[in-house]
């Protein structure tokens, strides 16, 4: 777990607010018995989590693709090639949604706005050097030309909800 107590408090407030303003249909599926606390969520979302990323084209058409997601400090972080269609979509329209699902055991659904962490022609995010060290440790130093080949994003969520009917089952199956 990389989250500070303040980050956990903010994440819990987001989870609570998101569920409370969800539709009655969603609340019939995701309720206090079938969700996770912020602390539990950070225990489950470790390492790389495959995300379905939804972006929007210039014509307003939805597009979905897969990305490697890393849940760090209570937010999703992910990257792609600088010349990927999703990178163009996010540069022009930074609203995005992601979903991470593990069969019927876990669903994490997030809507928000992305921040570019390592813009090619601008100042990187203040924590980029720490994040880059994490990504290089995870993927290897020489997997990419980290300055020119890949762009990384942080999704600042305005809505997030979690479906998890059995926390014990998730922690038993989680990698150590």
From TrEMBL:
Annotated SUPFAM superfamilies: FMN-binding split barrel
Protein name: Pyridoxamine 5'-phosphate oxidase family protein
Protein's organism: Nonomuraea roseola
Alphabetized Pfam families for the sequence: PNPOx_N (PF01243)
InterPro entries per the UniProt record, alphabetical: Pyridox_Oxase_N, Split_barrel_FMN-bd
Domain Pyridoxamine 5'-phosphate oxidase N-terminal stretches: 39-123
Recorded superkingdom: Bacteria
